[in-house]
Amino acid sequence: MDALCAGYGRSQVLFDLSVAMPQSGAVAVLGRNSAGKTTLLKTLAGEITPMSGSITFDGRAATTDPPERRARNGIGYVPQEHAIFARMTVRENLLLGATGRQGRGAIDEVLDFFPKLGVRLGQTAATLSGGERKMLAMGRALLGRPRLLMLDEPTEGVWIGVIEEIAERLTELAGRMCVVLVEQHVELALRVASYAYVIDRGTIALQGPAATIRDSPDLLRFLAP
Length: 225
Ligand SMILES: Nc1ncnc2c1ncn2[C@@H]1O[C@H](COP(=O)(O)OP(=O)(O)OP(=O)(O)O)[C@@H](O)[C@H]1O
Ligand SMILES: [Mg+2]
Known about the structure:
Blueprint: E1 2-8, E2 11-17, E3 25-30, H1 37-45, E4 52-54, E5 56-57, E6 60-61, H2 67-72, E7 75-78, H3 90-97, H4 104-113, H5 115-118, H6 130-142, E8 148-152, H7 160-174, E9 178-182, H8 186-192, E10 195-200, E11 203-209, H9 210-214, H10 219-223
Parallel strand pairs: 3-9, 3-10, 7-8, 8-9
Antiparallel strand pairs: 1-2, 1-4, 5-6, 10-11
Helix pairs in contact: 3-6
This protein binds adenosine-5'-triphosphate and magnesium ion.
Magnesium ion is lined by residues 37-38, 80, 152.
């Protein structure tokens, strides 16, 4: 995506942002609260129409594609909030993520990937733990067979003991698709990701290989409140 400007109504949040995502591997998007990380993902998912700039996916212009078309074309998105239907069961949530021709097989794959969900199939999503909710949201997105999977704070509200399990799953996913990871856990994000962008007030303040960003003397400055 190139020279993107976006925001809400008249209030501009992203200023001339250009990012490129690889075919596979994880890309971390870091930045303090209100930096514009969620706005960036919403723009890539098609929930926000950019004020200017362009988005290309798979060599095709996608700037004006509605969210459903982007999802069909392989862009998966797990939003920071309201990613699952709280009143529905785990099974129903997964069935909603499965497209017509996918049957039990695809859901079984998700349950193999996140075994904790398998024992909760009949439970309403509202009764799940923070970690289980995040796994359900990711599982549902995976049923769409994305090639680019964007995750907004996949470890937010997750008990520390389960965070590492999610990190392992993210690393596995990054082996077979591009994972875009917005994270407050900077150490985790830079361990899982191979490349990182640091956003400061809607512009890219730093970017580079994750190992370089981790050692950058400027990193803390851009993340400090
Ligand atoms: N729906 C909205 N309408 C108006 N302004 C919004 C809206 N959503 C976000 N903003 C503003 O846009 C700016 C960037 O918000 P955004 O959610 O992208 O930040 P973020 O980097 O994801 O922060 P956090 O780490 O807290 O999730 C903030 O100043 C926020 O107040
Ligand atoms: Mg956010």
